[in-house]
Amino acid sequence: MNTKNIAEVVTAQADNYSEKCAAAYLREIAQVARTIQREGDMTNPTASEKGMERAQEMALSVEVRSGWAELMNAEKLTPAEFKILLAWGGPAIRIIGELNEHGEVIGDSCRIQHQDWGTPWQTLNLGQHGQDALAIFCQSFPFGYWA
What we know:
This protein is α+β, with helices and mostly antiparallel strands and 147 residues long. It has helices at 3-13, 17-36, 47-58, 128-138, and strands at 61-66, 79-87, 92-98, 111-115, 122-123. The chain contains four helices and five strands, in the order H-H-H-E-E-E-E-E-H. The longest helix is centred in the N-terminal third of the chain and has 20 residues, at 17-36. The protein is globular and about 45 Å long.
């Protein structure tokens, strides 16, 4: 995964400040994802753990929500979606996505979004490498704990 190229391509296509900030976050996310993937590297066995710690340090908040349920079965609600807030204000940056019934991230559902003051959330266009990096980053959060 070439983290430099991911950010350069996205940044070159960015039209506004919040989009450029989202691209900068994507660069950091890609670097963290690459660190997480080093799990099998016997020369540095703690690299994956350090990458996961870094991902969790980047988050200002992590939230989940569930789908609809009958009132009498509400105690059995399990998370269906997640949101990771990375920056707030102008601009704000977040990641949203879906979870399966076991609380695992559905990789291709992950989206990084950005917004500036008074503007709606916009989704950053990602290539396949960016999508893969974002999925790896999101999978480092323990969403399954609540499932």
